[in-house]
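I would like you to sit down with the pair of lines that follows and say whether tokens and residues agree.
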Amino acid sequence: MSGLHSSTLSRQVAPDHFPRWLLFGAAGIIALSLISVGLVRLTGNGPDQKAAAPAVQRSLVFKDQKDGGVRVEDGVTGDTLTVLHGEQGFVRGALRALTRERYARGIGSAAPFELIARQDGRVTLFDSTTGQRVDLESFGPTNVAEFAQFLAMRPESSATH
């Protein structure tokens, strides 16, 4: 037993070797994160940035029709601006995202959405009933144009509601 004890004491324990590249990599990621946060805070381009003042704003109500179209109405007067037929993928997708939140909260579809063109060129579709918004410029100029057309539309002369 003393032989076993003496061999254990004479054996040297090897020091732990942690890969240095892993430590440098972790330090680099932390530094990059801190620099990124600092830049966002200094430039004001973070998620909490204030929206520019509205240049043009219009209330819009979107109603599904039996033929599959979507009637776009002025949210103040109730006049029909146009009826969208066909895919209208981006318009339908943006509306679907906002109406899903309305239905989750038990809010109906009667309240209008606000389409806002801002002085800095951004266009936002805002749902005042839920506080949700879609910043349309994030999806490119073609998709912004699909909504921006509603800002200048006049009511259809032969519209029936």
